[in-house]
Amino acid sequence: MKDPFIPFALPSIGEEEITEVVDSLRSGWLTTGPKAKRFEEEFAATVGAPFALAVNSGTAAMHLALEAIGLAEGEWVVTTPFTFTATAEVIRYFNAHPLFVDIDLKTGNLDSELLSQALDRAESEGKRVRAIMPVHFAGRPCDMDRIMELARKRSLKVVEDAAHAFPSSFGRSMIGNIGDLTCFSFYATKPLTTGEGGMVTTADEDYAKRIRMMRLHGINRDVWDRYSSEKPNWYYEVAAPGFKYNLTDVAAAIGIHQLRKAEKFRLRRKEIASKYDAAFSDMPVSLPSDTDLPPGSRHAWHLYVIRLYTDRLSIDRNQFIEQMAERGIGTSVHFIPLHLHPYWKNRYGFSAQDFPEAFRLYQSCVSLPIYPGMTDENVATVINATREILSVHAT
Fold first, then answer.
1. Which residues are catalytic?
2. pLDDT given for residue 226 in this prediction
């Protein structure tokens, strides 16, 4: 019999999540309610932020965060081209512009020195930069000390894209309690999932109030506030033209238990990463690392991204992926840089070499399976297949 296919990613859902969802269904409270509130409170406590606002996607989280800081038409937000399109897409919602800065090839994160240069150049060109949006690629925290220093020097806001970065920390501070606002994704493949969902964390009460209102049509009171009492409580006011971005209790029911397992999940991913490190150290690939992070830092290990040394192989990245699939193993590519996609390329006139490190990483990177539900046998299968392919094609 053919061995079962090992997917690139798979959510880890247990009986606790199932029981909590069933309890929500039986309670009659399906939309935003007591479980969403509980999820927010427990998430805020976990990352050490005063406020956590649950929403229905990571994209919604970033949109609301930029709305809260007052991003305006014609302004610029500095970010990376090496990310999913949602990071830059939300900037365009305001008819504002992404100011892309290249990455550090070793980490996949914003190059902080190039960031400094880009900010100086933008200032000299008269660009109105409002914020910096770092992306914690693969769950490895960016150099937040340097980013915050650059932002404070220029009175810029820092809105973190932490879609990969739970639970991560930079030094002794959790991601979620460093920038002005931090945006998390709970999509099905993320370290913590609610199926679809997201969260914004902040220490700023005004930002929290604005997001709480704007996530539900600009209404000044949540549904839970209006319908959880036996007393007539029907009156509300629309204070702004908001959005429909609230998280349901059914989704939050999953999140409550995912949150409690998050560190256990991370440790299992770290264990798998360590096995990969040991297995591939003599192979013609560059491996991810967390050893150069400041003391106390934590890598979430959402992704394990290797970079093939294609000049030492007789196959390219795409052929490697095909051969892994032939052996029953799913892989992925993170990311196709935004400046290569038709919209971004045509809108801003980019060429492939405008961000050479992002382009270089894209051409050779492969994401291997790394999720808590992988058995040791699954991990060994991935290792053996990877080593076999690389060994056969080494030049």
1. 190
2. 58
